[in-house]
Amino acid sequence: MKINYCDALVIGGGLAGLRAGVAAQKKGLSTIVLSLVPVKRSHSAAAQGGMQASLGNSKMSDGDNEDLHFADTVKGSDWGCDQDVARMFVHTAPKAIRELASWGVPWTRVREGSREAVINAKKTTITEDADRHGLIMSRDFGGTKKWRTCYTADATGHTMLFGVANEALKHDVDIRDRKEALSLIHEDGRCYGSIVRDLITGELEAYVAKGTCIATGGYGRVFKQTTNAVICEGIGAAIALETGVATLGNMEAVQFHPTPIVPSGILLTEGCRGDGGILRDVDGHRFMPDYEPEKKELASRDVVSRRMIEHIRNGKGVPSPYGDHIWLDISILGREHIEKNLRDVQEICQIFNGIDPADEGKKGWAPVLPMQHYSMGGIRTKPTGESQNLSGLFACGEAACWDMHGFNRLGGNSVSETVVAGMIIGNYFADYCLANDVTIPTATVQKALDKQDAYLDEILAYNGTEDIFRIKNRMQNLMDQKVGIFRDGTGLAEAVDELEELLKKTKQINVKSKERVGNPELEEAYRVPRMLKVALCVAKGGRERTESRGAHYREDYLKRDDANWLNRTLTSWPSEDDTQPTVTYEDLDIMTMEMPPAFRGYGAKGMIIENELSAKRQEEVDTLKEKMEAEGKDRHEIQDALMPFSLPMNYKEKNERAGDK
Amino acid sequence: MSVEKGREITISVLKFNPRSAVSKPHYVDYKLEETPGMTLFIALMKIREEYDPDLSFDFVCRAGICGSCGMVVNGKPALACRTLIANYPEGKLTLLPMPAFELIKDLSVNTGKWMDAMSKRVESWIVDNGEETDIAKMEERVDPDIADQTFELDRCIECGICVASCGTMLMRPNFVGPVGMNRVARFEVDPHDKRTAEDFYELIGDDDGIFGCMSLLACEDHCPKHLPLQNKIAYLRRKLVALR
Ligand SMILES: Cc1cc2nc3c(=O)[nH]c(=O)nc-3n(C[C@H](O)[C@H](O)[C@H](O)COP(=O)(O)OP(=O)(O)OC[C@H]3O[C@@H](n4cnc5c(N)ncnc54)[C@H](O)[C@@H]3O)c2cc1C
Ligand code: SF4
Ligand code: FES
């Protein structure tokens, strides 16, 4: 048995994993980062639109600060988030972006003078002050009070990922790609590393570490129609679930994005709408103002997605061989703007659909339809990023339910989360590794490895009639149809039943080639059962949650129910023989919230079943604020009195801003 | 999507597993029906699911963003996920793994390993004067034009297509490749990087670097991100030659 020892093991080399790896390595720990693919090819590379950080540099973001970013994030989450974590996040985001700038991410910068922009479909002139020239620029995104999304044209994820990956190389983080984690090594409630398969040689190895951090991204590929890369299969979450100890949080909270292009599902960034692009129906009519007069195309993603489907259901979709769709029109931004700031979008339209979106009129409209986009759920952690139940296991990035997104995440808050969580959780993780030794007997490691070895042999020996690819396709279609944007009790119950059946069928397959190396079908055969477990957590959590909150929308329970459902869903898999997850809940405590639940600002009012504590806490908050303001306290002191939070390193320091008085 | 429906196409793939004692390189033809908008990503996934589950290839983003899927299509290296079958009127596509990289199996090559070595070799990161940046303070100002110029060179996705198209690569296995030189050009523009021309000379001032390039232009012709590789190589060469 080959055992690789290190201090800190990070599974996943996207933005979150790499940044956490740098944090651990910088604290003097020997750090290994594992990844399915070369890390610069991670899904993070695909992020286009940008990263939220309240710098307040440019005209349209002047006056921005942590408080506004916090309020937007909490509202965006439909009050499902952990407000402590949201505070930690908004306070660190400006530092994260400045660190990235110093690592070479070529952020688009403010240019003094006037420029034309399209706001609410009208040409508007914005004039930037000379004293802001050369500072980091930002653009508009849905659900934010200020223009807060910083960007590098529409390749933000790419430049960020290369910046962080290069920095990891500079610090000699040991990065190993084409390595797949198959299970976690754990004993007596503590995690000691992972059993890993080399995807080139097929060899199984053990990685033993003082602490393990999972940063394997989201689980979008349990759906068929998704913007996610093909490697976003949720295996990191699945192996945590399979420990039987760690739990997953809010797995039913799945975000659908309004504007992937039809049929390929490749995303056209929210920046399209942020920069002024609009949605049109079969008649060319701009319909969003009819539904959301205030925010229009820039309402939250869940809202826009639902409105689009609603409009299609009203008979206003554009018919096509792939079903009805909506048009996205960015031609109104002008060719020059598109060719500079939305070049990748233009290229995607040209290459995959033969359309030039800069062409004026209908010719340039791109067919779009909401599809799965982001996994708010993931490995449930404490604010330090450590699993609530399995000590030594940490998680960050999209793989985690840390939980600053609650039931809906705002555009630009995810790549921001990855680096911010990489900084915060990475440092807590490193501290854990510094404080704890490895005490596991080799025999336990051997047992964990033998188990995976035997499992692969078992798969190759299956002699049934089912086909693993068909099972996967069936799962994905089922998730689209019954666990999608609109959900109801009947459909969800059917989904749970059928997913359970599919899980059983994964043992009745026949893998054609019996090779242990270079056998893609074998890889599917061990991944799909894990994906099915993740899918079951999503469907069952959704079935039980009889309310609508954020992206989780139940047609049979239209209201957000704070009286009964202001809680987080936890799913676990206590026994290997189980064929369904166990669902429990974790309450959110209104009386410690800085921002007690209220109306979110979209859709019809009165769609909330109030919790009586909300008004009580609001009164407390108002009284305290009033009193402290009268005493001349500043916003930081007031915030601290309302809901104190802590951060590692010197991240608690105040963020300097150009607009500081 | 101006493709006629239902045309029969043939995809011919070189299969070989260097890790198997019995495998020999051989072509396998797959015949399938073209669907509207079909890319090589869609076609190869279909082949794997319906005809040959043993076929190895690499896709991640399937959107031309991550650089995973470089392969040689009818003699030219290209990103398979952005290759539309409709652009091949004869309906026959022959696929080979990219040369210059270690073969993993069939169409899968180890570009990641090559790129990591390249990144380390040209020290593909910001080299500053060693002072920690105080991230609670305002960021350093950068002229918007310089930021744009840096970004333009930072768009390389490390797909390796320029390397696979490069004549010098065939003769000099240690050649840093167009991608490596682009990387140097990128850091040379970036005001955060404090390296001088002399420092860059140390890294690439030899025949395995900037002076090895034969200016055959294939790298730039094939680069899916349209990076100005030849311009930048010429610029660096002039700059570094002036030093000695
Ligand atoms: C098309 C698109 C556009 C987006 N645009 C934006 C945007 O503009 N702004 C924004 O804020 N967010 C955006 N997002 C969301 C954001 O990109 C992701 O949430 C974020 O990048 C996730 O980063 P991560 O580090 O958590 O995971 P990833 O980048 O997904 O990385 C996961 C890593 O884990 C590895 N891995 C997975 N499983 C295993 C295993 N079993 N063993 C070993 N390694 C494993 C993978 O190889 C990879 O290295 C976008 C998402 C999509 C789909
Ligand atoms: S320079 Fe172009 S061809 Fe070469 S690796 Fe980068 S993107 Fe690919
Ligand atoms: S799969 Fe990402 S570039 Fe082709």
Explain what you see:
The complex is a heterodimer of chains A (661) and B (244). Chain A is of the alpha/beta class and 661 residues long. In chain A, strands 1, 2, 7, 8, 9, 10 and 18 form a seven-stranded mixed β-sheet that branches. In chain A, helix 3 crosses helix 11 (413-435) and helix 14 (489-505) runs antiparallel to helix 15. The model of chain A has no long low-confidence stretch (mean pLDDT 95). With 244 residues, chain B is α+β, with helices and mostly antiparallel strands. Chain B contains nine helices and seven strands. Chain B has helices spanning 40-50, 111-121, 144-154, 161-164, 167-171, 177-189, 197-204, 218-222, 229-241, and strands spanning 8-15, 26-33, 70-73, 76-79, 92-96, 103-105, 108-109. Chain B has a five-stranded mixed β-sheet. In chain B, strands 6-7 form a two-stranded antiparallel ribbon. The longest helix of chain B has 13 residues, at 177-189. The termini of chain B are far apart. The model of chain B has no long low-confidence stretch (mean pLDDT 93). At the A-B interface, helix 3, helix 4, helix 10 and helix 15 of A face helix 1, helix 2 and helix 3 of B. Bound molecules: flavin-adenine dinucleotide (FAD), iron/sulfur cluster (SF4) and FE2/S2 (inorganic) cluster. The site of iron/sulfur cluster (SF4) has 15 residues of chain B, from helix 4 and helix 6.
Please provide a brief summary of the model.
The complex is a heterodimer of chains A (661) and B (244). Chain A has 661 residues and is of the alpha/beta class. Chain A contains 18 helices and 23 strands.
Structure keywords:
heterodimer; A: 661 residues; alpha/beta; 7-stranded mixed beta sheet; 23 strands; globular; B: 244 residues; alpha+beta; 5-stranded mixed beta sheet; two-stranded antiparallel sheet; 7 strands; 14% strand; elongated; binds iron/sulfur cluster
Indicate the low-confidence ranges of chain A by residue numbers: none
Strand-pairing-aware structural class of chain A: alpha/beta
What would you call the shape of chain B? Answer: elongated
In order across it, which strands form the biggest sheet of chain B? 2-1-5-3-4
Strand content of chain B: 5-15%
